[in-house]
Specification:
Blueprint (H helix, E strand, L loop, with lengths): L1 E7 L6 E7 L4 H4 L1 E4 L3 E7 L5 H10 L4 H11 L5 E7 L4 E5 L8 E5 L2 E6 L6 H11 L4 H14 L9 E7 L11 E7 L5 H17 L2 H7 L5 H11 L3 H12 L4 H7 L4 H7 L4
């Protein structure tokens, strides 16, 4: 019913999972992650609390192999599938003997792909190849694998939801919760494509790509990013017009005044003074 990839980035130490399925809100059911500990995929008809149990086991010093073996031995339902990845990049997976056909998993260096009720046997090899061939950050490589799985047929029943979750390899602190990416598409005709769009939008926010945000941010905020983009490229008149349009909206003039100390807005705000 589901296909996923778990992996560790050897350069940054980040840990992540990408998953898609023909169920509502797969991001609520399958992925579990804890910064500085590991990432878990709990699929098919695995017990819902198993993800937390496996993460607790990793935090207590258990190895993925031992935890997967223990979970497989104690499972009451043979229709289950799990994958466990720890902060060192060690990974183990198990596909229950009763899991829905076509089902299976493939383990590589610091990653694993797994799926059940797949459209064909090509899905998992396509995902593994895409992940190992992709370049860029861990979220992008995870999405490359998920896209390849969808392109190879994905879930036999169709498509509905997808999720991408990446955490740091170091524990969370009061100043940083350790969550790098947490994106979900709960109900869509093409959830993997929608997830890629969300990833691009988050990248634009993180990298302050104001030109991109001028086009794809929520409509009510686009003039703000248009002003920032114009200021960055030195177009004073365009920045002035965008800010003037914002100040004409009810409530926005006060908000701009309150944000006067924001370094991003200070330069463009002075254009109206």
């Amino acid at each position: 019913m589901t296909f996923s990839v778990v992996a560790r980035d050897a350069d940054t130490g980040d840990l992540g999972i990408a998953v898609s399925s023909c169920i509502l809100a797969v991001g609520r059911a399958v992925p579990a992650a804890r910064p500085g500990v590991g990432v878990v995929a709990v699929q098919a008809r695995s017990r819902r609390g198993l993800g937390a149990t496996l993460l607790n086991g990793l935090a207590a010093g258990g190895t993925p192999e031992a935890l997967v073996r223990r979970a497989a031995h104690s499972a009451e339902d043979a229709d289950r599938q799990i994958a466990v990845l720890d902060v060192q990049g060690r990974v183990a997976a198990d596909t229950g003997r009763g899991s829905f056909p076509v089902s299976g998993h493939e383990i590589g260096d610091g990653f694993s792909v797994q799926g059940n009720m797949l459209a064909g046997t090509e899905v998992l090899p396509a995902m593994a190849h895409a992940f190992t061939s992709a370049t860029g950050s861990l979220p992008d490589r995870l999405l490359a694998a998920l896209t390849a799985g969808q392109d190879a047929g994905g879930d036999l029943r169709g498509r509905q939801s997808a999720a991408l979750l990446v955490v740091t390899g170091s524990p969370a602190t009061e100043d940083d919760d350790g969550v790098v990416v947490d994106l979900r598409v709960d109900d869509s005709g093409d959830p993997v494509a929608q997830l890629r769009m969300l990833r691009n939008l988050q990248r634009a926010y993180d990298e302050r790509d104001y030109e991109y945000l001028t086009l794809f941010a929520p409509e009510g905020a686009r003039e703000l990013y248009a002003a920032l983009a114009a200021s960055r490229r030195g177009d004073r008149e365009a920045a002035r017009q965008a800010l003037a349009a914002m100040r004409s909206r009810p409530g926005w003039s006060g908000w701009l005044s309150a944000m006067a100390g924001d370094a991003r807005l200070a330069a463009v705000s002075r254009l109206l003074d």
